[in-house]
Structures are given as structure tokens and as C-alpha cells.
Write a structure and sequence with these properties.
Blueprint (H helix, E strand, L loop, with lengths): L4 H23 L1 E6 L7 H16 L4 E6 L7 H9 L5 E5 H5 L17 H8 L2 H8 L6 E7 L4 E5 L7 H4 L3 E4 L3 H9 L3 E4 L5 H6 L5 E4 L1 H6 L2 H4 L2 E8 L3 E6 H5 L3 H35 L3 E3 L5 H15 L4 H10 L2
Parallel strand pairs: 1-2, 1-3, 6-7, 9-11
Antiparallel strand pairs: 3-10, 4-10, 5-8, 5-9
Helix pairs in contact: 2-13, 8-14
The structure holds beta-D-glucopyranuronic acid.
The site of beta-D-glucopyranuronic acid has 12 residues, from strand 3.
Length: 329
Amino acid sequence: MPKNPLSRAKILLLIAALVFHNAVGAGAREFRAADIQSPDYPTVLAILKMGELIEARTGGRHRIRVFHSRQLGEEKETIEQTRVGAIDINRTNVAPLGSVVPIANVLALPFVFRSLDHLHKVLDGPIGEEILASFERYGLVGLTFYDSGVRSIYNSKSSIRTLADIKGLRIRVQQSDLMVEMIRALGAVPVELPFGQVDTGLIAHIIDGAENNWPSYVTTNHYRVAPYYTLTEHTMSPEVLVMSLRAWQSLSAEDKIIFRTAARESNVFMRAQWNTLAVESRRKAREAGVEIVSDFDRKPFEDAMASIQRKAAADRVIAPLLERIRQVK
Ligand code: BDP
């Protein structure tokens, strides 16, 4: 140890800093979060918000790094990677998740929700809690739901008003058996494609159309190649934020509360962002000349998909949940 008191103090300080850093470094963790949407999409902004809250409330011990724009892959792959713990946090739509966690499909069923208000009452209430809690046996922890508005059918050919108009059209669907069934029930041809390939599919005429909410239809520029949007509003399948069970189990009890609270607060933040973008997207599509079809008879579309609800009502796991969803006022 040098005789000079100043350098001795410096060395002690350095050692102290190193010990402190290692102590914090060892506990500090950067959690990798996946989202297929673009950097300014409300779901991505919500995860960033959650990250901010977690970093602030853990004194910088934990941070979230968001890999947006499909950097970690499409939802079918990232869901699997989250189950094995290669991805810590994942924001996905419930439809592709339903292929792994069947109970999630109840939220994607056609025409199951009477309104967005009905959807919110279900998601924000005991039914939503139960569904999130049921993910653990699949290696996932359900943190919160995010809005995804209402999905409708759009296409590049002509305006759809009747089942005859959609007959035989190749309509892209998410990688989900339920979504395939829905489009097939309308007499169209379902084409399962990852989200990132919809625009090329439309441009190359591999598909004639797809179905989605206003923000995904507009922020992806699908409206430019498929300017016919019929308000079928056939599903309100929400988004969901999940964490890998492995990452969750690495958290202390205190940090688990911080993560869950931050996730719930990010949902409130997300909903406000979402409402603004949904209105803005519809206005942008209208001003760009998209033909928005609202004056059509939706009943034949509902009747055509009724068999799917009947099948779900015969499922011993889904049936009681479906009944409780219908009872929510
Ligand atoms: C968007 C959802 C996204 C889905 C996508 C799709 O935000 O999670 O993967 O639809 O249609 O609205 O694949």
C-alpha cells in the first residue's frame, strides 16, 4: 500500500466502488422484451413506460431493453423462445398465443364481446385475472392485457358487403387455428402468414386481403395496397404482455410486485395512446381514399361464424368462461 495518503484513499475508494458495483451489477439485470410492432406503436411505448417505472422503482437495478419491429422474430417463434426463457418479456396478440395456451382463445372468439366497454370489464376484472394466472403451466406469467381495438377485413380487390363478395378470396390470418376457422367459415380461403409478410403478400398478390385493427392496417401501410375496409368487427382479440416463468422466478418477492404494478400502470398509459392512434389511423385511411364499408348487413357474417362459438361452448374449459363473459354487464 503506497505511503502517500492521497493515493491510498483513491485506491480504497476504487475498491469500494468496485465492490459496490459488483454487488449491484450482480443483482442488476437487463430484461429482453420482444414486440413485432414499430418503435412508436402503443404496445412498444407501453413496454418502454413499464421499463421506466421498473428502473426508477428498483433504483436502476433492473432495466428492460425492448426489441421492437420483429428484431427477435415473429410471434409464433418469440412465444416459444419466451417459454424456454430465451426471451424474458413478450408482447403478443392472444390469437397466436391461443395455439399454446388454449384458454386464451376465449378472448379471440368471433363476436364474443358486445362492445369495447364489455371487453374492458372482462379484461380488467376477475375473468381477466384468472386467464392471466392460467399461463404459468405453459412456462409463462401473464402480466397484463393491452388494447388491440376491433379487427375487420380489408382487401385489394373490391368492397365486401356480402358473403358472396368474400367467397374464395385469399385472406391472411395470424398463425392461429381459430383465426383460420373464422375466415374459412365466411367462405374465404384463410392463408396463415407471419405479420411481417402481409405487405409483400398483398403486393405480390399471394393474398387478396387480411384482417386487423385500424392502427395495424395504417402503420404498416397495408391501406395503400388494400384500400377496401369492411367493418366486420369480427373479433376484439386483445394483446397480452407475458414474462418467461424463468425470468419471473429470478425476481425477489419485492421485485415481483414492482414488475406486476408497473405492467398494470403501463396498460393505463397504453390505453390512452391507443385511443388516440385508433382515431388518427381511421382518419388517415379515410383521407387517403380508403373505401370504408359500414352500411352492410353484418348478420350473415355473425351467423356464418356462430358454429365457432357453439364449438367453444362445448369445450369443458372454455364453456364456463364464455358463459361468465356473456354475463358481464
Ligand atoms: C396486430 C397485433 C399483433 C399481431 C398482428 C397480426 O398487434 O400482435 O401479430 O396484429 O395480425 O394488430 O399478426
